[in-house]
Amino acid sequence: MGEELKVPANLTRRTFVTGMGAITVMGGLSLAGCSPSGKKASDKADEYDIVIIGSGGAGMSAAIAAFDKGVSKIVVLEKMPSTGGNTNFSSSGMNASETKFQKEQGIDDSNALFAEETLTGGHDTGDVELVTFMCDNSAGAIDWLDGLGITLNNITMTGGMSVKRCHRPTDGSAVGKTLVAGLVEAVKDRKIEVRTNCDAKELVVEGSTVTGVKVEEKSKQSTLSAKAVIMATGGLGANQDMVTKYRPDLKGYVTTNQSGATGDGYTMAEAAGAELVQMDQIQIHPTVEQESSQLIAEGIRGGGAILVNKEGKRFIDEMKTRDKVSAAELEQPGGFAWEVFDQTVYDSNKAVAGYDKAGLVKKGDDLASLANTIEVDPAALKATVEAYNAVTTSGAADEMGRTQGCIAFADGAMYAIKVAPGIHHEMGGIKINTKNEALSADDKPIAGLYAAGEVTGGIHGNNRIGGNAVCDIIVFGKNVGEVVAATLSK
């Protein structure tokens, strides 16, 4: 039965993972969801129009969108005690183009440019149709969120983008907590049933149609019937065995993923006949604090931070795509970097205060004292910052070729966070079309089965641009809810 919807106060990636420990997947699939009320959404127990597996951004968006299009018999399943999944920890923002907020701020952008840079960032291995659909519908998704009270009007830049299109909450904070809290509230307002600690095990397939889900809840097994099942289970970053199955070279890497991201959705969908694509395309993120597995927001680099090695020297254009920055870091002495920034960057990224409170930020009253604190040569670090500052103060060419987010360091307090690559995002997954239908190997829709979010593949290609995951989950989460509602109404 439904339990009270829970979003822990002051949730951090560290406390979430530590509190949950390891999740063991048995025989198929474990999933995500939550419960705003103990009220059954159907007249008959365990019979629904839509069962949504996963309570992250994609799953909750699908539930809200479907409900608003007239479907009331909906349940969201969540295997963890709390809702939100990896969306809780999304740090950069939501990329979107031609938005009302960009126009208000005089930012010239286009859907075509957004799509072009997304495809280029993924080295032209993404699905053109899916990417175009995402970009064309991104402004509408920003408006939709705004209508739910989730306003993302603080716009910054991420690596691989040529204009500011990464939308964050007004105060510049990480997008995840704001997004999850707002979606949870919308789910509660609609009295959509969410069942936490409800572990989906496998899809029920009758003939060639998915008709339900087998679940385990409070040590009891049951079957939930459904006219449609939406898979929104997220990625696999917390399942080291599955990671190394597809990418043996990533063995031993830390992960930014919460402990419920164990890849169960891939297993269950594949067993029902869905095709998995590009599963070896697992993204590592260049700025992960290794002791805590804390992702350091990309907006910090976009706001002017630089990366230096243990010798105090820059080694790459910090605004290049994640794969290139990660590779460059691994080539440095010790395989790590210091992300260095001033008080202006600290103040403009609310997430930094959280990192500081968690003890991840090193500080100095000035550049020389910071250099001593992080044990790099003060003269080398001074020369590095002076050369970087010259880009903005004299118009000199940046030695690393950086052209975006070049903001001169101001005198005063300086900060640094030690970072290295960590497993971050599964870019492959269930093959879908623009109706979010799960497809078989011969591109035939699997009746009754849909998918949205990180569990799907083809959108990001072999490199995901920072800020595109949130765009993905909201655009396609909203879309799948509306598509399924329209299908059921026929």
UniProtKB/TrEMBL annotation:
Its cofactor is FAD. It comes from the Bacteria. Transmembrane segments: none annotated. GO terms for molecular function: FMN binding; fumarate reductase (NADH) activity; steroid dehydrogenase activity, acting on the CH-CH group of donors. InterPro entries: FAD-dep_OxRdtase_2_FAD-bd, FAD-oxidoreductase_2, FAD/NAD-bd_sf, Flavocytochrome_c, Succ_DH/fumarate_Rdtase_cat_sf, TAT_signal. Residues 49-470 form the FAD-dependent oxidoreductase 2 FAD-binding domain. Its EC number is 1.3.1.6. Keywords: FAD, Flavoprotein, Oxidoreductase. Belongs to the FAD-dependent oxidoreductase 2 family. FRD/SDH subfamily. NCBIfam families: flavo_cyto_c (TIGR01813), PRK06481.1 (NF005064). This is Fumarate reductase. The lineage of its organism: Bacteria, Bacillati, Actinomycetota, Coriobacteriia, Eggerthellales.
